[in-house]
Amino acid sequence: MAVYKFYLGHRELSKAVFEWDAADRTALLTAFMLMEVFSHWLWCLFVWYRRDTYGAYVDINLLYPVWISVSIVGVFLLWMSSRFSPVRSVSSNLHIWQALIITIYSVYITFIVAILGHSSLVTGVSLVGGAMLGMMLINRNYVWRAFIGQIIAILAVSLLPYFGITIPNLRQLTATTLPPSIHSYMTHSDMTIIKNEALTWEGLNHLRQSSNLLWRSTHIYMSLPKAIFIIYMFRILLVSLDDSRRETLRHANQDELTQLKNRRYGLKKMKYALATVREYQDLSVMLLDLDWFKQINDNYGHDVGDQVLIEVSQTLSQSLTDKTIISRYGGEEFLIVLPDTKHDSAMMIAEQLRLNIAEHVMKIEGLADFNVTASFGLYTLTYEERACIAQGYEKITQQKTVARTSPLIKPIATQRAESQIASMQKLPSDICQRLISTADKALYEAKHRGRNQVVSANEMWAEKKGGKQSLYKSR
Ligand SMILES: Nc1nc2c(ncn2[C@@H]2O[C@H](COP(=O)(O)OP(=O)(O)OP(=O)(O)O)[C@@H](O)[C@H]2O)c(=O)[nH]1
């Protein structure tokens, strides 16, 4: 078993523990149980060693059978943990062992809780913490059943005295206050002390305080280390969950080959950029497509094609700022969104990118150096056009809303909610697609004009005769 890996940091350890196979995790849980049982055994030893002092608060006659029971459970768990290697190969056996271990532990903990006088601290930590730890390490169904069984058993043990059944208890009862008439409040053991010795008020008080101190310390000793350990394990689990969540998100948003954002995430970021663009800010969109990329694949092979895609992606990332949204839109096509960028600046950026790609020399082992080029289609959505689109869109939505609603006056809450929605949806939902398809038309034109160049859809429209063109009127 890989428990020796505790020298690892908690992040590494978390990975290691949760990647272990089921038999190792069961063995780890057994080791935890064993440590707990051993701590109980040490407590018995301590009380027995100081029996002259603690004999007044602990039932020493009962301590011996308890000690023997704790020892038997300890030896049994020790034997079980040594049996995991053979069990590992037969997985069905492992399930039986898991069920057995958790049942024995539940019965044992119920016994300890009852025999110690139903400490709420020990009960709480054992029930909740033990179940949490168990669920992290072994079959959750077994732990869940054991948890329910333990609750029923602890409830039963607590209620039995009300049905006249007395359960042996290690804790000797002592008076907790000094009433005016001592005899009517004394328990049997206190009465014995009073009969044998002349008990003073201070003596009784001392007895009460010492007893409380012993039992409180016992409950803390039996609960806190376990609670700290379980919280530590839980932290490890959460670290591991955080890591895997981050990893999943990274995979969901990133293109595996180029490490750029993927199409889905690029579009999501673009939508967000459009929703948060400020008044008087323009937004530019570029589509970039490598030229004659099929020939690269055909001439040099798919691996070289992949390498080209990686290097072009690196050139893009290195040439653009963090604010720019760069994503792999398709095979050899990239989508670049420049928030708060005017048309002229966007043209300059695109031209610079084109040069950077064209000047980058592909050095591939076993092949002569070569260069690739790219064509660019660009479109800038100016704030004036955005305002026009938003206005037109608002009119349409208002008309639709009036047609749908009754002439009755709407409640203020509804009006407020509607105006909020309207302000959030200022632009039509297909705006991203429109922007991209407009940039795509410019890209097509760039290919048509001979490739390795930047074409702006805004300039294309300006050059065209016959009326003003715009994103929603250009068909
Ligand atoms: N190596 C590699 N090739 C890819 C990948 N994705 C798409 N391709 C290839 O990219 C090529 C694109 O070819 P075309 O669409 O004909 O474009 P082109 O050859 O670049 O020609 P133009 O765009 O007209 O300049 C196809 O052969 C695809 O198989 C990829 O991830 N890796």
TrEMBL record:
Keywords: Membrane, Nucleotidyltransferase, Transferase, Transmembrane, Transmembrane helix. InterPro entries: Diguanylate_Cyclase, GGDEF_dom, Nucleotide_cyclase, Rev_trsase/Diguanyl_cyclase. The keyword Membrane applies. It catalyses: 2 GTP = 3',3'-c-di-GMP + 2 diphosphate. GO terms for molecular function: diguanylate cyclase activity. PROSITE patterns: GGDEF. Residues 281-459 form the GGDEF domain. CDD domains: GGDEF (cd01949). It is an enzyme of class 2 (transferase). This is diguanylate cyclase.
